[in-house]
Amino acid sequence: MSTWRTARGALRLWTKLAAFAVLGVVSMHAVHLVVGNRVAIRALERDQAQLGGGVARLVAGEIADPILLHDNVTLAEIVTRAASIPGVAYCFVVRDGAVLASSFRGSTPAALVEARGAGFSGPLVVLDGASRFLDLEEPVLGGKAGRVRLGIDMALLLSARRQIAFPLGLVALAVILAGVVAAVVVARSVVRPIDELVAVADGFDPTTDPRPVRPRGGPELERLAERFNGMMLRLRSAFEEQERAKQKAIVTERLAALGSLVAGVAHEVNNPLAGLKNCVHALRLGDTDAATRAEYLDLMDEGLDRIRDVVRRLLEFGRPRPLDPILVEPRRLADDVSRFVASVLRGRRIVLETTSDPALDGAAVSADPRQIGQALLNLVLNAAYVTPDGGRISLRLRRRPAWVGIAVVDAGPGIAEGIRDRILDPFFSTKPEGEGTGLGLSVTRAIVDSHHGELEFECPTEGGTIATIWLPEAKSDRRRQAT
User: Fold this and answer.
1) Domain contains 173
2) Are 136 and 223 found together in one domain?
């Protein structure tokens, strides 16, 4: 029987479900955090740009007259006052590349003055070391009198970003933790019923009434549990039907084997019957002394015992009986079959020999001698069918670690390669129609399977077939009980 095993170190299903759910929650809220932060910062940038633009327009309106009147003092005061507004980093007025007034104490940085290309008047981010400024431009009198340049310190935006990110991060962390807990709870609620199904499936035994699974875990899992319970009942019913069919096949093959033994049985019964008839005839003549009559009576008693033994063996072989394993030595199984078929093989002058491995001394198996005997008988009769008159069949006792084998070796033509995969199929036979049921080997396999054994066929290159019944060897303590 094959057994499916979970790979060592593999993650449980509920762990995978929880991990995927957590990954989804974390990814989703990370995206929400980034997008929300960017939206908030862009809104602040727009507000700052609008605020700075308003200041620049006010400055542009105030400095128009001082520029036209060349009132540099008033112009400088207006520019300085604008730069003192919170959030404004600098303010200067430029016309035709020349700075007319500036909030810088020294000269206005040339790079800042030249940062704007010709014709560009939109917001511009400029860098000064680690500082960032949003540079805004507003024309004075349509640009004829010059342009106001106003710088908004973006440190405020960075501070606002940090202030926004912190509460958003706390919210995201809380949502992630809640999502993790929910994912674990949901995953476990899904996996627990599945684990129960797996446990029941692992412990399912078709020979006993199945233990039903309690439906739980939602409508889908409840339907799965109901279908699973129904499946176990159907498997139980199918197993019982299969066992009944198997027993019928065994009985059929047993009767077929009895038919094959009829000739030998008739010979074994006819011989003592002939002796009995001779003794009765001699006794009827009445000219025998007391000693001779006693000898005739002993012979008659012996003949009747032989007939009784033959009939008893036939009845035991043909009577259906459940599996009843006992500890038995493989040599005894082989010897019982040898005695049973001796008369059949003797009529065809076929020699049946038994050879044993010395390592098998004291070995025992747990088997039903009657059923294993039938399996061996099927193999021997098959071997006899392909063995010519005067040939030889061997019963070999074999061994491999933890197993004991009884092999039937013949010198026939072997098994054709094209049918080797079919010889165990029920009703498959290479014998002419009417000479075989096609159940012999399939029944043999069923018997061996019921003993947790193996049926093995070998086809040596020199010809012939080796059919081996392998049975698990009994433990040493049980072997001592058998002896």
Assistant:
1) no
2) no
Instruction: Answer yes or no: is 27 within a domain.
Output: yes
Q: What is the strand order of the sheet 88-95 is part of?
A: 98-102, 88-95, 146-153, 131-140, 124-128
Which domain, by its residues, includes 117?
13-166
Q: Which helix or strand (DSSP H or E) is residue 457 part of?
A: strand 454-458
Burial of 29 (C-beta count, 10 Å sphere; 0-12/13-18/19+):
buried
Task: Please tell me whether residues 99 and 225 are part of one structural domain.
Answer: no
Name the domain count of the chain.
3
Domain boundary among 136, 166, 196: 166
Dist. CA 94–CA 1, nearest whole Å: 93
pLDDT in tens, the chain (483 residues): 333 344 445 566 556 666 776 777 677 767 766 776 677 667 777 777 787 888 888 888 888 888 888 888 999 999 899 888 888 888 999 888 888 988 888 888 888 888 887 677 788 888 877 778 888 888 888 888 888 888 888 776 666 666 666 776 777 777 777 777 776 777 667 777 777 777 777 777 777 777 787 777 677 777 887 888 888 888 888 888 887 877 777 666 666 665 655 555 665 567 678 667 777 877 787 777 888 788 878 878 877 877 776 676 566 555 556 778 899 999 999 998 888 888 778 888 889 998 888 878 788 999 999 889 888 988 998 898 888 999 999 999 998 888 999 999 998 888 888 888 777 776 567 777 655 556 677 778 888 988 999 999 998 888 889 999 999 998 754 444 444
Element (H, E) at 369: helix 369-386
Pair 218, 279 in one domain: yes
Cβ neighbours around 35 below 10 Å, total: 10
Residue 329 DSSP SS3? coil
Q: Which long-range contacts (CB under 8 A, 24 or more apart) does 36-44 make?
A: 36/164, 36/168, 37/161, 37/164, 37/165, 37/168, 40/160, 40/161, 40/164, 41/157, 41/160, 41/161, 41/164, 44/156, 44/157, 44/160
Q: Which tokens belong to 295?
A: 């000898």
Contact 161, 37 (CB under 8 A): yes
Q: Both 334 and 463 in a single domain?
A: yes
In 10 A of CB 223, how many CB atoms? 11
Q: 76 with 211, same domain?
A: no
Contact criterion met (CB below 8 Å) for 179 and 187: no
